[in-house]
Amino acid sequence: MSYSNYRKMMGDLLADNKTTGPNQAEAMVAYTRMNEQRMHRLDKTVQLNAEMQAALQQISRPMNWLVLTEAWCGDAAQNLPALAAMAAANENIEMRLLLRDEHLELMDQFLTEGGRSIPKLIAFDPESMEVLGSWGPRPAAAQVLYLGLKAEQVPFEEASTRLHKWYADNKNTDLQSEMLVALKPWQARQSAAL
Asked: Would you tell me which CATH number, out of the four given (3.40.30.10, 1.20.120.530, 3.40.50.300, 3.40.50.2000), belongs to the domain 3-192?
């Protein structure tokens, strides 16, 4: 689905006090409600830096970005608005979202340290269907923070608060830097296939 359809689906589910995926526990719905607020704010405030904008304009061949996600995922809420802004900056990039729990066979091809971590962006050439690369589930610095908190057995709520503070302070700077690095080899793979 498109990003706008994904956002609408989240709103529709929340109107029925539901979320995506099989776990419809109250906590999962609460996370989704929080994520809806985060995404609403980020949709309005994400700004792509000049280097990111210039790199996106260099993409001259069609490229598809498929993102595995779920509405309850906090990392998805923090990263999807910026990824959507990047895709919207060049008509050659088409971003579509799939719900992870409905596509586990695909998810299992793009595990992070053995886990089904999301969001996971898979870039591919729409003509050859060659996978160009992937990104996710979070910027490297956020991943280091997350793994450290997990190793220290910090309670989930505290770990989540600290991770989301990192995102708020970072303002998608690391995500944009990592996508800048990723775009070059993705484009090179496309050029090599010509």
From this structure: 3.40.30.10
